[in-house]
Structures are given as structure tokens and as C-alpha cells.
Amino acid sequence: MQRILTVSVMAILAVPGMAWAADAAGGADMAKAFAVLAAGLGFGLAAGLCGLGQGRAAGSAVDAMARQPGAIARIQTAMLLGLAFIESLVLFVFVIAVILLFVKS
Amino acid sequence: MEIIEHPPILHIPAIPDHILYTWIVMAILVVVAIVATRRVAVVPTGTQNFMELVLDQFVKELDETIGHEGRRYLPLIATLGLFILTSNLMGLIPGLVAPTANLNTTAACALIVFITYHVIGVRKQGFIPYMKHFAGPVPTLLKPLMFVIEIISHCARPLSLSLRLFGNMMAGHILLAIFFFMMGFDGMLGWALSGTLGGIVVGAPAALIMVVFVVGFLLPLKILVAFIQTFIFCKLAMLYIAAAVEEAEHH
Questions:
Q1: Residues B169 and B229 sit within 8 Å (Cβ to Cβ)
Q2: Is there a domain that residue B153 lies in?
Q3: pLDDT band (50, 70, 90) for residue A102
Q4: Distance from B236 to chain A by nearest Cα, in Å?
Q5: What is the percent of chain B where pLDDT is above 70?
Q6: Is residue B142 part of a domain?
Q7: Of A57, B55, B144, B231, which has the fewest Cβ atoms less than 10 A away?
Q8: Nearest one of B117, B104, B93 to B165, comparing CA atoms
Q9: Interface ipTM
Q10: What percent of chain B has pLDDT over 90?
Q11: What count of CB pairs under 8 Å joins A to B?
Q12: How far apart are CA B86 and CA B201, in angstroms?
């Protein structure tokens, strides 16, 4: 399973390289291709792992609320702050992805 | 992005869009403030009532976070909160620009918070004791290391504060732009109106579904995000100020 995953990731990573090497356009197109790939893969990874983290945080918060309905307001505040901190890491990746995609270098 | 995004409806050459729309937000807030305080009554009505309700929320949060000294910082926090909330909500109207969807605006807000809480800390405590605080309660040998780490973490605060707000607003902006593009005259609606068979069979239902999805789900979500981001920005600013004030009280 792991070997298949590794091989497929390597194959995906090799595709733009081969495609752009074929028409011998030079370094700039190559860099653009890898920038697009990096933006997509990086943001996918970040969003998925952020989903795991936020799901865990929200689940624990709901657990705590069910146990102590009196403290719902304070738990909600803490949960929102935690979610914001988790989310900000994804937003760093989002900013990097936007820079990779739209800034001409 | 220029391909799918409509240019803002109001544009003055030589003035960047986010500054122009910052002025518009300022004008809205000033007008609301003047209208609310024109005839101040003991039993508030109308705009004054509404603004008192809004500011009461800020006062409640300040009392909860900073404590009895919190109301001194109401002008700062409430101004930041009202400005950010108004700009976030303005970005949801197609054709207008959210000033907070530009890193310059959010970085300005975050730097104000950063400088303010350091000034508050130094004023409460004096320069040397405040600096000693960065070293933390660790053995003497580890203090230089802790000092460097604390300095780095304090410098990361304005960075994350500004990038969080900017990223959220920018992502929402791009998402809405893409969806409006897909259901507009260049997308599904245009296909449905072109009169071809595929357009009538596939394009029209797709346009309908997309309109229902955007109006029923995406826009409410964006309104929620606008309020939550404002809340988080203000809450974090309060927490930073509270940390600077509390350190003075305990030592």
C-alpha cells in the first residue's frame, strides 16, 4: 500500500517535468509548472490536516459542552480561539499558494 | 484574477482601491457616530440604541478578558472591531472591495495592537522589569535562550494576526468571485441563454442550483466568517493587552 502510494506520488511529480522537458522550452515554464503543482499539493495537504485538527477540537468542545452545559459560553470562546489558531496555519499556506500562482517571478 | 473578477464600481486613478474603500468605511462609521450621538437621550432610541447594544458587547468581552481595568481600552478595541466588521461586510457586496482583503490594511491594524500592548506593558512596569519578563520562570542558565524564543514569538503575533484576517477575507473574495463567474453570463447562465440544447437541458438547472447554493449557503457562511474574524481579532488584542497588564499585577 505504502509502496503504491510512494510510486504514484513520484509519478505525479514526474509528469510536468517530462512534459516540459519534451518541448525544451527552458527553465521559466518549468518553474511555473512546479509552482502550480506545489500550490495544489501544498494547499490540499494543509486543508486536509487542518480538517483533522479542527474536527478533533470541535469534537472535544462538543463533548465538554454536553458534560457541562453551564460553561457553554466559555467553552465556545475557547473553541473559537483554538479553531482560529489552527486555521491560521492553513491561511499561511493559502498566502504562499496565491503568491506562487499569481506573482510573476 | 483580472479575467474573472469585475473591477470595483468606484475607482479613482492614482489612488489604490483599498485606501479608497477604507475612506468609505471611515465615512460610514463617522456618519453613524454623528447620527447616534446627535441627541443623546437617557432612554436611547433608534441609532443610539443600536450602537449602545453593539458597544455593550465590547464592554462585556473587555470585562471578561482584562478585568476591572479593561474599560480603559474600549476606544481602541471598539474602533478596531467596528472598522474590521464594516470592511468585512462591505466585501460581500459584489462590486465593492473589502479593505481587509489587502495585507496593508490588516498589517496596519495588527501593528497598532502590537505597539499598544508593549507600550502598556512598559508603562505599567517599567522597561527593565518588562524585559525581564520575557525570560520567564526558568533556571538562570536557560534565561538567554528563553529570551530569544519569547522575542521571536512576540514578533510572530502581528504576523499571524494580520495574515489570518487577510487570508480569510482574500479566500472568501476569490471563492465568491469564482462562483459568481461560474453562474454569470460567461458561465452557466450564458450557456442557458445561448439557446443551444445542452444549454437548456444542463445549463439552466446548473445555474439555478448554483444560485441557490451561493445565496443559501455561501453568503451566510461568509457573513458568519466576517463576524467570527472580527471577534477573534478583538479577542486576541484583548488577550495580549491582558497579558501585559496582568504581568504587572502579579509581580
A1: yes
A2: no
A3: confident
A4: 8
A5: 96
A6: no
A7: B144
A8: B104
A9: 0.71
A10: 29
A11: 36
A12: 41
Q: Domain residues of chain A, as ranges?
A: 2-102
Q: Which chain A residue shows the shortest CA-CA distance from B171?
A: A94
Which pLDDT score is estimated for B78? 93
- Neighboring chain B residues of A84 at a CB cutoff of 8 Å: 164, 228, 232, 236
State whether residue A73 sits within 8 Å of chain B by CB: no
Confidence (pTM): 0.82
Inside any domain, residue B80: yes
Inter-chain residue contact B171 with A81, CB threshold 8 Å: no
Sequence-ordered list of residues with C-beta below 8 angstroms from that of B72, at least 6 positions apart, any chain:
none
Position A24 scores a pLDDT of: 55
The answer as to CATH 1.20.20.10 being correct for domain A2-102 is yes
CA pair distance B164, B157, nearest whole angstrom: 11
| Contact between residue B232 and residue B164 where contact means Cβ atoms under 8 Å apart | yes
What confidence tens digit (pLDDT) does each residue in A13-52 have?
777 666 655 555 566 678 888 889 999 999 999 999 999 9
Contact B105, B84 (CB under 8 A): no
Domain count, chain B: 1
Rg (CA), chain A: 20
Structural domain containing residue B43: 17-127+160-250
Residue B145 falls inside a structural domain: no
* CA distance linking residue B74 with residue B201, whole number of Å: 57
Q: Which letter, b or e, does each residue of B59-81 get, where b requires 16 or more Cβ atoms within 10 Å of its Cβ? A: eebbeebbeebbeebeebbbebb
Look at phi and psi of residue B96 and say left if phi exceeds 0, alpha if psi is from -120 to 50, else beta: beta
Q: Out of A80, A90, A92, whose CB is closest to B228?
A: A80
With contacts defined as CB-CB under 8 Å, which chain A residues touch B231?
Answer: 80
